[in-house]
Amino acid sequence: MLVALIARDKPGALHIRKDTRAAHLEYLKETGVVQQAGPLLDDQSEMIGSLIVLDVADMAAAQGWADDDPYAKAGLFDTVDLIHWNRVIGG
Prior knowledge:
The chain is α+β, with helices and mostly antiparallel strands. The protein has one domain (2-85): 2-Layer Sandwich (Alpha-Beta Plaits), CATH 3.30.70. The chain has three helices and four strands; from the N terminus they run βαββααβ. The chain has a four-stranded antiparallel sheet, with helices on one face. The radius of gyration is 13 Å and the shape is globular.
C-alpha cells in the first residue's frame, strides 16, 4: 500500500534538519520502501518539512518506518501525518 507521510518541522528547527540530513537520506535509501521524497519549502526556499511516499504492507509498517526516521528520532517534526494514498498518475 502507498502511504504519504507529510511532516512539518518544529519552528526554528532548521539546524536539526541540517545536522541530521545525511543520516535521514541514508535511511531513505537503505530501507527500500521510499517511492518518492523531498522537502517542503517556505517562501524563501528554506526546508520546513517533508513529503515522502512509502510503499509498505500496512499502516503499522508506515508508522514504524516514520518512528525510525533519524529526523523523527532527533525531534525535528512538529506534526506527522500518515495518509493512505492512491496513485493515479505517474509510475
